[in-house]
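WARN no homologs supplied; continuing
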Amino acid sequence: MKARNQNSNLSGIIFMLAQVSMFILSYMYHSSAGLISLSWLIASFYCSVNTTLFMSIVFMIPVLTWEFMLIYLSKVPKIKNTTFFLEYGKYFRFEMNQTTFEQFFMLITLLLFYMMISIYVKRRDMKNVENRVIGFFRLRIQNRKIAWIWVFYSCRWAHILILVTLLALGVQNLNCINNLGYLAFFVIYTAYESAYRYSCRVLILFSSVFILGQYIYSLHYQIYMRANNEEKILDLYWWNMFPSSNKVNSNLMQDPFHIPREGHSLYFRISPPWD
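OK structure emitted
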């Protein structure tokens, strides 16, 4: 029984490490490949664990393997100049500041996803797998471990912090659809706590639309800036495809994402291929 609990905890650690790794990959390498990592990360919070593991095995493992092979082999002089790599390797031209460490990090991420195969097989054979988190806390609370009791009740009342965050986000700028949505969620969830507990995934989906939208538009937003169409840009700010917090009314042509052309930013390591 003890060994089984340890395996369950290890599976949870591997899953969370994979989420952290994908967050780093998606924002450290600003590219179309990073968009795939960001999409998986958002889906991992919205879908069940078993569904996420299944998607990881069927879709993400082949994608990450292909990505790692292209990045690694593109460093080999005799291979990187071939027609194949000139055609398909351009989407994975990451300018690495610390090549050894960054490639090692990508290898660790790939290994974490391969470990999900065994995790998925074990979880599929378990019963009441969705209740294991509750059982994890119940066992420690019964043993009167103060630290775990504090963690449990902090998580149980975490919705209060979320409600305060929704209010803070909503009042920032009312001329933006996502902030109006956050205010609506704040009103509904404050009035009906049960609505929050049964429909919190709707809030995740609502936020995910703007996270993905901003990432997609950040890859080619220069197209709209060059068109010099202020009405279109105002619409993009309204739909929060451009970050409303960076909006400058006196100069709508200002870069809304603050992405340096040199690509030395921590979160946007490389610049998208605008030209």
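The chain has two domains: 1-125, 157-260.
OK
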